[in-house]
């Protein structure tokens, strides 16, 4: 039998070619009457919001009332997850910080990165490293310095 | 290669045809169509049936007639919200004027960094599958036909120029890996495109609109029977039996010539459609009634988008888009190989290339008598080492060494390659390597 082939799919490398921002939608909810929405309401009427939408055109921004509730920001991500932050009693500058936090998030749950995984070779854990696997049978080998100024093999 | 002036094309291709240009179009209009198919796209009016019956009426077509009120006119005039809604609901897909009202659509435009010359209306049209709107002036079928060809061309030349010695089967699998329907579906998902629950004129144009095929485990009319348990109706009636059904041999060469670019058999070709145009309508109608899978709709969308970019912004923009979104994805081509008898393949290859016949020799070993022995075996042709491999038995190591040698040959990649479609006018074209192909065993 000649050579056969296996079918797979290619995997995305976001940012290697095009970069797709993972946050795709931001919903701002406010209340007209509750005091906890004061900062949110001033954020929504301030030039911060138009500036935000101009600098991030790839995010779909929607604003809707949520009467008799605290103001929230809801972000939807490409992986299908949502993140919600309640911004009650916050000033507009503080709200902007929260918005930036949501915008820059990847949508995944925040998990502690364990020590062994901090530096990862291309392709993930268990894959061969770029430099290959070290083998004792190949190459020049490393000599042992016996303290006589000469390396013996 | 002479650069084509695509800007001129885009207008001609996008504007609705007022006269039938070819046999297929004539027949499309001659068949009794529902009112929706005669929906005018903008100010130009689609030809109605009676005007195409005879050649004598051609003159009448050319004469200026009072234009019929279009959907856009009606929408503009209707101040009542309920009236607008009812007009929109009567349409199978959102009218082009709605494209500028959709935040979702313009966010998608920005997210993909599409060229500004690609208007939102065209992006919206790319998102309408033929199963949602059967009218070819409003769905993405023409875009996706062009985009599919472009995608096939760009991907195949990229793979072939990068790996000129790749066996044909692996080449097909690599094509499937880069631009197969599964990949295009995941690309659509990674672009953040959502699929509308049901298509319609009132739906936000930023959603991918398609009519979904019924789920296999849905019950039939409230009975306990599931859809997948029903006897299967032929997917495409009036269809020629496939080569496999006729008992013909489908070799690799036949697949290169007759099949699509993944090596799968084509059920109906463009030639079939040209010979019997009613087949085309029939297929479209069936898709419209039966619905399509999400995979079909999403891969059509990606292809249509590439076609639309090519039409509006030109060849270079389309190629850059392809490079950024499809070629930049990771595919380990060396993992696509599946060898059956690598040692025999290698000796055939050496015989063909005029090398000495390959000999396996132990390079080193450890723990032969232990529970975990390791042998390192090299395959040599004369004094040249072709490949080496390690394994816990001599045979395993020898086979790994042969696979390594074969992959080393087949995965040869020249350092700097320019693909044929990127040949420029001023520069001299350096021909790329074309190899004899894989060994025939």
TrEMBL record, chain A:
Subcellular location per the Swiss-Prot or TrEMBL entry: Mitochondrion
Major localisation: mitochondrion
Keywords tagged on the record: Mitochondrion, Ribonucleoprotein, Ribosomal protein
One protein family per Pfam: L51_S25_CI-B8
Domain of life, per lineage: Eukaryota
UniProt cross-references to InterPro entries, sorted A to Z: Ribosomal_mL43 (IPR039927), Ribosomal_mL43/mS25/NADH_DH (IPR007741), Thioredoxin-like_sf (IPR036249)
GO biological process, one term: mitochondrial translation
Similarity comment: Belongs to the mitochondrion-specific ribosomal protein mL43 family.
Annotated SUPFAM superfamilies: Thioredoxin-like
Recorded GO CC terms: mitochondrial large ribosomal subunit
Example of a GO MF term: structural constituent of ribosome
Record flagged with keyword 4Fe-4S: no
Domain Ribosomal protein/NADH dehydrogenase per the UniProt entry, residue ranges: 32-106
Protein name per its UniProtKB record: Large ribosomal subunit protein mL43
UniProtKB/TrEMBL annotation, chain B:
Gene Ontology molecular-function annotations: double-stranded RNA binding; ribonuclease III activity; structural constituent of ribosome
Domain DRBM: 341-411
Biological process, per Gene Ontology: RNA processing
GO cellular component, one term: mitochondrion
Gene3D superfamilies: 3.30.160.20, Ribonuclease III domain
Family matches, as CDD domains: DSRM_MRPL3_like (cd19873)
Keywords annotated in UniProt: Mitochondrion, Ribonucleoprotein, Ribosomal protein, RNA-binding
Keyword match Lipid metabolism: no
UniProt biased composition (Basic and acidic residues): 73-86
Compartments where located: Mitochondrion
Chain intervals for the UniProt region annotation (Disordered): 46-102
Chief subcellular location: mitochondrion
Protein's UniProt keywords contain Ribonucleoprotein: yes
Annotated Pfam families: DSRM_MRPL44
Family per record: Belongs to the ribonuclease III family. Mitochondrion-specific ribosomal protein mL44 subfamily.
Protein name from the UniProt record: Large ribosomal subunit protein mL44
Species of provenance: Cladonia borealis
């Amino acid at each position: 039998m000649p050579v056969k082939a296996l079918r797979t799919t290619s995997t995305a490398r976001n940012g290697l070619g095009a970069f797709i921002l993972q946050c795709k939608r931001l919903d701002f909810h406010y209340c007209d009457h509750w005091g906890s929405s004061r900062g949110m309401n001033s954020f929504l009427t301030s030039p911060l919001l138009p500036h935000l939408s101009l600098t991030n055109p790839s995010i779909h921004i929607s604003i809707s009332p949520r009467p008799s509730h605290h103001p929230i920001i809801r972000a939807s991500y490409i992986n299908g997850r949502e993140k919600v932050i309640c911004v009650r009693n916050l000033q507009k500058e503080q709200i902007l910080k929260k918005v930036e936090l949501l915008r820059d998030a990847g949508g995944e749950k925040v998990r502690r990165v364990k020590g062994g995984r901090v530096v990862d070779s291309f392709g993930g854990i268990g894959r061969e490293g770029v430099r290959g696997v070290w083998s004792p049978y190949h190459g020049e080998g490393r000599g042992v310095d016996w303290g006589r100024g000469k390396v013996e093999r | 290669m002479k650069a084509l002036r695509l800007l001129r094309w885009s207008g001609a291709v996008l504007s609705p045809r007022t006269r039938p240009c070819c046999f297929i179009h004539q027949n499309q209009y001659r068949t009794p169509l529902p009112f929706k198919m005669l929906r005018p796209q903008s100010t130009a009016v689609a030809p109605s049936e009676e005007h195409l019956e005879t050649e004598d009426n051609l003159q009448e077509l050319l004469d200026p007639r009072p234009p019929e009120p279009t959907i856009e006119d009606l929408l503009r005039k209707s101040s009542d919200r309920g009236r607008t809604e009812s007009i929109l609901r009567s349409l199978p897909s959102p009218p082009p004027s709605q494209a500028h009202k959709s935040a979702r659509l313009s966010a998608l435009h920005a997210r993909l960094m599409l060229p500004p010359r690609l208007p939102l209306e065209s992006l919206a049209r790319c998102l309408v599958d033929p199963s949602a709107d059967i009218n070819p002036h409003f769905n993405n079928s023409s875009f996706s036909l062009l985009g599919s060809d472009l995608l096939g061309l760009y991907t195949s030349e990229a793979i072939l120029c990068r790996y000129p010695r790749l066996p044909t089967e692996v080449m097909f699998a690599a094509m499937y890996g880069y631009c197969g329907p599964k990949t295009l579906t995941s690309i659509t998902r990674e672009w953040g495109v959502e699929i509308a629950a049901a298509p319609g004129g009132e739906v936000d144009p930023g959603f991918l609109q398609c009519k979904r095929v019924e789920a296999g485990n849905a019950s039939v009319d409230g009975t306990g029977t599931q859809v997948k348990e029903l006897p299967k109706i032929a997917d495409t009636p009036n269809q020629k039996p496939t080569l496999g059904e006729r008992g013909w041999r489908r070799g690799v060469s036949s697949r290169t010539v007759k099949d699509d670019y993944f090596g799968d058999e084509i059920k109906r070709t463009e030639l079939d459609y040209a010979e019997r145009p009613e087949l085309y309508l029939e297929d479209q109608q069936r898709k419209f009634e039966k619905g399509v899978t999400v995979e079909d709709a999403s891969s059509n969308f990606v292809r249509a988008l590439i076609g639309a970019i090519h039409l509006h912004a030109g060849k270079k923009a389309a190629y850059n888009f392809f490079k950024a979104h499809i070629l930049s994805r990771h595919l380990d081509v060396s993992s696509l190989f599946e060898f059956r008898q690598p040692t025999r393949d290698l000796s055939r290859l050496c015989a063909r290339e005029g090398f000495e016949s390959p000999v396996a020799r132990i390079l080193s070993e450890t723990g032969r008598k232990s529970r975990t022995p390791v042998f390192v075996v090299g395959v040599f042709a004369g004094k040249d080492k072709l490949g080496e491999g390690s394994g816990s038995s001599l045979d395993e190591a020898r086979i790994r060494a042969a696979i390594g040698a074969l992959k080393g040959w087949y995965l040869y990649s020249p350092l700097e390659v320019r693909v044929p479609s990127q040949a420029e006018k001023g520069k001299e074209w350096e021909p790329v390597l074309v190899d004899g192909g894989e060994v025939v065993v």
